[in-house]
Structures are given as structure tokens and as C-alpha cells.
Design brief:
single chain, mainly alpha, 84% helix, 0% strand, globular
């Protein structure tokens, strides 16, 4: 075997290990972000707040994320992205541990703000760092990161629901902190140095913000994500309305639907306009079906299609904004994260109010309308 072939094989192994490390970090961060949805009833009862108020634990994370995503590259324009990713995972582990030990809901909210910083920063840098580790493989990197999200929903979130019912919700957050530390160690061991882009920082962000196509796409991303996150913190309540004893396996079905959605988005990645429009429209239909299901079969269809639709959205929109803003991808990624986190903030707040005042079906209806508007918008826009 020639030295060139050996070097290429080694580079592929290094790139694959780096991508797995990134995926594991994303998996654990997403699992931590949405743990409150899995443990919501028990967390609310233990801390003495309503279920709608407990849902604000998701909103607090998103508020911090919406502020952090566009600013972290400005604050750290020249810092090696590997070191930034390591620090963000460490912050996430501390946040989960603090929630596990929280004596009151205000401590939970403050801890979740720290998690929001970690998630937004990690998402902002992960795509660019992954592409540097595996040059020319943008579709693989984006799909792979989204698979990390699906693994979180397939494994971590349903297990959290079961764990909360058996060992308690605090134990769930404690375990999340420990596994995140393991993920941090793996990233330290395998991920290469990733120098910052020469124009990273305020100059790159200003250039990206002057792109009207990118801004229009970001508005559609907010609507699509808002459609999901008005409803998702209360998915367990929607399931319990129809079949109180089947929450765990239906959350698992949602996660498997998400894995199918990742694969579908990867297949459709070469037709971004179609993928970006179909995903929100399918999300709209699935939310309506889930919200007004009159039996378990109808509920299963709604939940699985919901998982498929929502998991298509991050892959399709990540590639969409990268194509719309090819010269300033890092800033485009951070703005996509801001769009998602803004939508999560709005969704949790609006959803909590609607659930407390009108019930979970009404919240899913609001989400369906937002998703439908996003799908129509993406059908009109062209990413390049």
C-alpha cells in the first residue's frame, strides 16, 4: 500500500471519528434541551408549578440560545473551534447537574440558560468544524448531525420518560450530566484543531445579514420551528389525552420517525426547494392529526409523521442557508440556530399559555398553522 493511500485512509478514519464525536455531543445536548418534555408532569409536581410553567424550562434554554448563537463568534473570533466545542460541552454538563440538584424552579431556569449558551454555540460551530474534518462532505455532515438529534429522541428522551417514572426526574438529569462528561472526553481525544475562519466575527456576520434571500429563509425557519415547539414540550400530554399508559413507546415511535426523516432529508438534499417545503407541510398535517386523534391508530400515524417531518427540517434548512450564503457559512449557521432558538422561546411561551387556557389540542392547532405558512414560503423561495 502506498504512503498516499495510507494517508488518505488515516484521514478518513480521523474524519469519521471526529464526526462521531460531534454527533455524540449534539445527541446529548438535544437530549438535555428536551428532557423537560419527558419529565414534565413529575418536575412540575415536585417543584410546585403548573405544567405550562414547567414548560418554560425549554424556553429559558432557547432564550439564551437565541442571544448566544449570533454573538459567540463575534466574542471569540479567533479561538480554535475545537476548544470552544469542548468548553460548551463542559458548560452543558454543569447545567444538567445543577438542574438535578435544584431546590427551586428559579434555579432550574438559571441552569437552563447556561445550557442554552452551550447548545447554541455548539450548533453554530459544529457544521463548519465537521466540514473541515471531512472536506467536501457537507450533506454527510448535516445529515449526520441530524442523526445525532434522532438518536436523542429515539433513545435518550424515551428513556428519560421511563427513568423519571421509576428513579425520578432528578436522577435523569444527573445521568445526563455524567454522560455529557464522557462525550467531552471523547471529543478531546479524537477531534483535531479547527482554526477560526480569517473573516470570522463581526465582519462575517454583517455580510450575512445583508443577504435578503437568507433573511427570508430565516423567517420561514422561525415559522417551521415555531410550529413544532408550540406543541413539542406538551407531546406527552397530547399522548396521555388518548392513551395515558403508552407515553414511552409513542415517544420512541416519534424518535424512529425522526430517523426516517433524517434519511428522507438526505435523499432530498439535492432538491432543497422541495425538501424545505414538504417538511413543514407534513409537520402541519401531523400536528393536526395528533391533536385531534380519536384513537391509538390515528395517534400513532400523527406522532410518527410528526417525527419524520420535524427531523427533515434541520437538515433541509441547514443546507438551505449554507447554499443561500456560501461565502459566510459560519454566520449563516449561527443565524439558523438563532432562528430555531427564537422559535423555541416563542413556542414554549405561547404553547404554555395555550395549554393552560385552552388545552393541548389548541396548542397543536396553532403549531399546524405556523408550519403550513412556512411550507408555503419555502415553496416560493429559491435557495440559490
Amino acid at each position: 500500500m502506498s504512503s498516499t493511500t495510507t494517508s488518505r485512509a488515516a484521514a478518513r478514519r480521523t474524519g469519521l471519528s471526529s464526526l462521531i464525536a460531534l454527533d455524540l455531543g449534539i445527541c446529548l445536548l438535544v437530549a438535555s434541551e428536551f428532557l423537560p418534555a419527558s419529565v414534565l408532569p413529575r418536575m412540575a409536581a415536585d417543584l410546585g408549578v403548573s405544567e405550562g410553567t414547567a414548560g418554560l424550562a425549554v424556553a429559558a434554554t432557547a432564550i439564551a440560545g437565541a442571544v448566544t448563537a449570533p454573538s459567540i463568534a463575534v466574542v471569540l473570533p479567533r479561538t480554535d473551534r475545537r476548544l470552544v466545542l469542548i468548553g460548551l460541552l463542559a458548560a452543558a454538563a454543569v447545567s444538567d447537574l445543577a438542574v438535578a440538584l435544584a431546590p427551586a424552579f428559579v434555579v432550574v431556569l438559571l441552569s437552563r440558560l447556561v445550557l442554552g449558551v452551550a447548545i447554541a454555540g455548539y450548533w453554530s460551530f459544529a457544521f463548519g468544524a465537521g466540514v473541515q474534518a471531512m472536506p467536501g462532505r457537507e450533506r454527510l455532515v448535516s445529515t449526520s448531525l441530524s442523526v445525532g438529534v434522532s438518536v436523542a429522541t429515539i433513545v435518550a428522551i424515551p428513556l428519560a420518560s421511563v427513568g423519571a417514572d421509576t428513579a425520578g426526574w432528578r436522577v435523569v438529569f444527573g445521568v445526563a450530566a455524567g454522560v455529557t462528561v464522557v462525550s467531552l472526553g471523547f471529543l478531546v481525544a479524537v477531534f483535531p484543531a479547527v482554526p477560526a475562519h480569517p473573516s470570522a466575527g463581526l465582519v462575517m456576520m454583517r455580510s450575512a445579514l445583508r443577504n435578503p434571500l437568507l433573511i427570508a429563509g430565516l423567517v420561514m425557519i422561525v415559522l417551521a420551528a415555531l410550529g413544532n415547539f408550540v406543541a413539542y414540550p406538551y407531546i406527552r400530554l397530547a399522548i396521555m389525552r388518548v392513551t395515558p399508559g403508552d407515553s414511552a413507546w409513542l415517544l420512541l415511535a416519534w424518535g424512529f420517525g425522526g430517523l426516517l426523516g433524517n434519511l428522507a432529508a438526505g435523499v432530498l438534499a439535492t432538491r432543497l426547494r422541495l425538501a424545505s417545503a414538504v417538511a413543514p407541510l407534513l409537520l402541519s398535517a401531523s400536528l393536526a392529526v395528533t391533536g385531534y386523534a380519536v384513537g391509538v391508530p390515528m395517534l400513532v400515524v400523527g406522532v410518527v409523521c410528526w417525527g419524520i417531518a420535524f427531523s427533515m427540517i434541520p437538515v433541509a434548512t441547514q443546507l438551505w442557508v449554507a447554499r443561500a450564503e456560501r461565502e459566510h457559512t459560519e454566520s449563516a449557521m449561527s443565524l439558523q440556530v438563532t432562528a430555531f432558538q427564537t422559535a423555541i422561546t416563542m413556542g414554549a411561551a405561547v404553547g404554555g399559555s395555550v395549554v393552560d387556557g385552552h388545552g393541548v389540542a389548541a396548542a397543536l392547532t396553532v403549531g399546524a398553522v405556523c408550519a403550513a405558512l412556512s411550507g408555503i414560503g419555502f415553496a416560493v423561495l429559491r435557495p440559490s
